[in-house]
Amino acid sequence: LLLAFLESGGSAGAQFNLDADELGRARNLEEVVRRVFEQMRPWLLIVVPIALCIGIGFFALSSWIEVGFARAVESGLRTGRDEIGKVFSGGDRFGAMLLARFLAGLIQFAGALPLVGAAIGVALLARGSGWGPALVLGLLLFALLWFVLMFYVGLGLYLVNPIVALEGWVFTRGPSTQT
After folding, report:
1. What is the C-alpha separation between 54 and 91, in angstroms, rounded?
2. Of 11, 46, 131, 161, which has the most beta carbons under 10 Å away?
3. Cβ-Cβ contacts under 8 Å for 63 (sequence gap 6 or more)
4. Distance CA 103, CA 107 (A)
5. pLDDT tens digits for 62-98?
6. The dihedral of CA 17, 20, 22, 24: what is its sign?
């Protein structure tokens, strides 16, 4: 379908040719954005799903490889030999790694919402009364507090992937020379 669409030169209204005269007649930025989006809509209907599929595929591939890479590094440090085959041995922890990385991303997204909400709130307050020094100082203090808290959360999330990758492998089948 995609090849037929592209070979046809973008027929069926999917030609993306920005008309500078038409955009020049726009009265404001909102109208320019609306007109550009209307011209891009057929392309976006094809490109966005393909990009999402590629992104999901790379997310899954990197989750699988990350488990195997952690195992290969641990095995190399323990035995002194490197084995490239261990990099591709992450199948048994694949689901756990996918879930852990997805949840860590959700936590980071949810952590960003208070700062976005504060910025929108300050912008709405500034619309009516202007950017007073108290408003700017309040936003800066909130952003500083938010940064410190998100840095702490990020430090905790940084350790999630190695723990998930090695849990159930190193700790149950660790070196046989333990004393």
Report:
1. 20
2. 161
3. 90, 94, 97, 98, 101
4. 6
5. 999 988 888 888 888 888 888 888 888 888 888 889 9
6. positive
Segment 16-55, tens digit of pLDDT: 555 655 666 667 777 777 877 887 888 888 889 999 999 9
Residue type for position 110: A
Long-range contacts of 39-47 (CB under 8 A, 24+ apart): 40/16, 42/10, 42/12, 42/13, 42/14, 43/10, 43/14, 43/16, 46/2, 46/5, 46/14
Q: Write out the DSSP string of the chain.
A: -HHHHHHTTSTTT------HHHHHT-SSHHHHHHHHHHHHHHHHHHHHHHHHHHHHHHHHHHHHHHHHHHHHHHHHHHHS---GGGGG--GGGHHHHHHHHHHHHHHHHHHHHHHHHHHHHHHHHHHHH---HHHHHHHHHHHHHHHHHHHHHHHHHHTHHHHHHHTTTTTTS--TT--
Alpha-carbon gap, residue 142 to 126, rounded angstroms? 16
